[in-house]
Amino acid sequence: MAEQLEAPAAGESVTGAAGTAGQPRMVLNTQYLKASSFEIPGAPIFFAQRRTQPLVEISFDVRIQRLTPDQPHFEVTLVIVATATSSVVDGSNQPIEGPSAAYNCNIAYAGIVSLSDVPADVIDPLLFVEAPKLLFPAARNQLADVTDRKSTRLNSSHLVISYAVFCLKKK
Predict the structure, then answer these.
(1) Which residues are within 8 A (CB) of 52 and not within 5 positions of it... i.e. 6 or more apart?
(2) Tens-place pLDDT, residues 22-55
(3) Closest to 141 (Cα-Cα) out of 102, 104, 107, 169
(4) Percent of the chain at pLDDT above 90?
(5) What span, in angstroms and rounded, lies between the C-alpha atoms of 60 and 42?
(6) Distance separating alpha carbons of residues 81 and 38, to the nearest angstrom
(7) Which one-letter DSSP state was computed for residue 131?
(8) Torsion of CA 118, 121, 123, 129, to 10 degrees
């Protein structure tokens, strides 16, 4: 495993391996599922009880790790945490107890990004916005594959999550 290294310091530009001047570019070399976990804390009793539709909360985090200090290669990891809660209901669909955890899901989806001839003021936007934007569709699909099962009673409306909306909410 690579050691956690800092992104370039403010004002420091990134040049290609040969150090040649050229058009700035970012290359997504590969992408992969780094980690995934899914837990139903109340199983098996959870499935025996009549419950409300789960309330799903989703949070995002972006983590950047420089792979080597002398090369412009970074691991960009998009971490998505989905937590669902629901309540036990009676025959008339009235809650009879407070909400409890329906499931917890964590996805860490990563990509190896190379930067070439990138000015210092563009590095953070590329690593923290553009690279995760490229990773997001596959990460969303991983999350959907794990959570969109009849056993979780999850409405598939979560598939319309937009990375652009996430970026706007972070400001």
Answers:
(1) 86, 87, 89, 93, 95, 99
(2) 788 999 999 999 999 999 887 777 777 777 788 8
(3) 107
(4) 39
(5) 25
(6) 10
(7) H
(8) -130
138: amino acid identity, one letter: A
pLDDT band, residue 157 (cuts 50/70/90)? very low
Check: CB of residue 64 under 8 Å from CB of residue 80: no
- What is the spatial distance between Cα 166 and Cα 171, in angstroms, rounded to a whole number? 9
Inter-axis angle of helices 131-147 and 163-170, nearest 10: 110
Of 86, 53, 72, the closest CA to residue 126 belongs to 72
CA–CA separation, 35 vs 132, rounded Å?
A: 16
Most confident of 1-10, 44-53, 129-138: 129-138
Tell me which residue has tokens 């036990």: 88
Which H or E element spans position 59? strand 55-66
* 3-state SS assignment for residue 166: helix
In percent, the amount of the chain with pLDDT more than 70 equals 74
Range 55-65 average pLDDT: 92
Tokens of 99: 């909400």
Which tens digit of pLDDT belongs to each residue from 77-121? 999 999 988 888 887 877 788 888 888 999 999 999 999 999 989
> Could you say which DSSP state residue 159 is in?
G
